[in-house]
Write a structure and sequence with these properties.
The protein is mainly α. The strands form five sheets. A three-stranded mixed sheet has the order 7-11-12, with helices on one face. The chain has a three-stranded antiparallel sheet with strand order 8-9-10. Strands 1-2 form a two-stranded parallel ribbon. Among the domains are: 93 residues, Resolvase, N-terminal catalytic domain (Rossmann fold), CATH 3.40.50.1390; 106 residues, Putative Large Serine Recombinase, Chain B, Domain 2 (Hect, E3 ligase catalytic domain fold, Alpha-Beta Complex); 52 residues, no CATH class; 66 residues. The longest helix has 48 residues. The chain contains 15 helices and twelve strands. Strand 3 and strand 4 form a beta hairpin. The radius of gyration is 34 Å and the shape is flat.
Length: 470
């Protein structure tokens, strides 16, 4: 026997195996000196009939004959027939195993078990009973949730969200940065909402037996933004420079988004906004008239300057008070983080230097403390008030509110849409009879309504319409 090649842990389903490749190289380098390759069984050499035929033919080029230690194959006609029958049975057995594996995985998925590798944000864990489960990863799960929350607002592009969460520490399993494609796929995975979907197997939104990272409502909102079904101020393929109000405005009668298009006349082209429902005649307005009417609508939303000034004073007072409260809460949480990190350091010393903890107990306690630190840091992030120039922010807000018409008229497509979204988060309605209207103005206007109510003793802010300045 010239040499023994032993494969441990590599499947006979594929030809890309370390020892198999070494065997072929050895036979090629020692062509003429090696007469036979002896395997224990044909199915241990290859489980794919095509692969077996190719490998056997390749060995034959080197003057090598394949032999089985437990099966009757030889160079005569009967032996060759038996050789092909055995290789066919090996593939048949492999196919049956694959079908059983797929059937088992399908049944497990349909019962709510995730049978594939844990996606980013989750990790695998073996319970004391030996059962393998999937649970949120304390390091990456909060970041995945933040990514969904940011993108669901419609205020950020995918690249902006990816840049933010990458800076916060989210990365791929190999420690590398997430690519744009990987992040796109992450936002599409219903598993983060606790739902199992494998379309190739006909499995759609099966309730999973693991903790979701986001709510179904948040996940569906992200899908709407991705598909352009939800209002977003970020550039989208449906946006058109000539029609900044299309899809943002809703037909007051049928509830469908209003679209915009050019119509060709005899001598020139005409731009119109119209309802997408061709059977609805409530909206068909020329572009110039429609946008001029919207600009007047913005003028009508302008509040009195005295209320804006009062609002500014209230916000500054509340801001300063909350900053003081936040410092106290942040200090308490920071102290708790230091205490937990101290416990973790003592745990490490007990395991590494004092050797008083077994590895399993150390890993379990370290995971628990790591999770406690991650949760505490999330509390700290929520407690801390971002350091911003509040005076500058309020000044900019006043400019926007008091001069919205001019800003919209002079802005680019992106600037117009951002302003529209900021003032009317759920869009506006329109019909030829009633003109523009809205079911919900921005939070700024609702706060101004409360300011006005406190100052003038007016009725409930429900249905509040800002008053034209004198």
């Amino acid at each position: 026997m010239a040499r023994v090649f032993v494969e441990e842990g590599e499947s006979a389903k594929t030809a890309d195996r370390t020892k198999l490749l070494e065997l072929l190289d050895y036979c090629r380098d020692n062509k003429g000196n090696v007469k036979h390759v002896v395997v224990y069984r044909i199915d241990r050499f290859s489980r794919q009939q095509y692969d077996y035929i190719v490998l056997a033919a390749q060995l034959k080029k080197y003057g090598v004959t394949l032999k089985s230690a437990t099966e009757p194959i030889s160079d005569d006609s009967t032996g060759k027939l038996m050789e092909h029958i055995l290789s066919a049975f090996a593939q048949f057995d492999n196919d049956v195993r694959s079908e059983r594996t797929v059937a088992g995985m399908r049944a497990a998925l349909e019962s709510g078990q995730w049978t594939f590798g844990a996606p980013i944000g989750y990790r695998r864990k073996t319970e004391p009973s030996g059962k393998d489960i999937m649970e949120p990863d304390p390091r990456s799960a909060p970041l995945v949730k933040i990514a969904f929350e940011l993108y669901a607002t419609g205020l950020h592009t995918k690249s902006e969200v990816l840049r933010k969460i990458t800076a916060m520490g989210l990365c791929a399993r190999n420690g590398k940065k997430l690519t744009a494609q990987t992040f796109q796929e992450l936002l599409r995975k219903s598993i983060y909402a606790g739902l199992i979907s494998v379309r190739s197997w006909g499995i759609e939104r099966v309730k999973g037996g693991f903790e979701p990272l986001v709510s179904e409502e948040l996940f569906d909102r992200v899908q709407d933004v991705l598909e352009g079904r939800a209002l977003a101020v970020t550039p989208h393929q449906h946006n058109h420079q000539d029609f900044p109000l299309r899809r943002f405005t809703i037909c007051a009668d049928c509830g469908l988004p209003i679209t915009g298009s050019w119509s060709k006349g005899r001598a020139q082209r005409y731009a119109y906004y119209r309802c997408r429902n061709r059977n609805c005649l409530s909206v068909k307005v020329s572009k110039d008239h429609f946008e001029r009417e919207f600009a007047e609508f913005l003028s009508g939303m302008r509040p009195r300057a005295e209320y804006v000034r009062l609002f500014r004073e209230i916000v500054l007072d509340v801001w300063k008070r909350k900053q003081g409260d936040a410092k106290g809460v942040s200090g308490t949480i920071e102290q708790r983080i230091k205490e937990i990190e101290g416990k973790r350091q003592k745990l490490l010393e007990a395991h590494v230097y004092q050797k008083t903890l077994d590895p399993e107990l150390y890993r379990s306690e370290d995971d628990r403390l790591t999770q406690d630190i991650a949760l505490a840091r999330m509390e700290l992030h929520e407690a801390q008030i971002e350091q911003i120039d509040i005076e500058g922010v309020l000044g900019f807000a006043e400019t926007v509110i008091l001069d919205a018409r001019r800003l919209w008229m002079e802005g680019t497509l992106d600037q117009r849409q951002r302003l529209q979204k900021a003032l009317f988060p759920k869009g506006v309605t329109y019909s030829n009879q009633t003109g523009f209207g809205t079911t919900e103005t921005s939070l700024f206007f609702r706060w101004l309504a409360l300011v006005q109510e406190k100052k003038d003793g007016l009725a409930s802010p429900t249905g509040f319409e800002p008053v034209l300045s004198a």
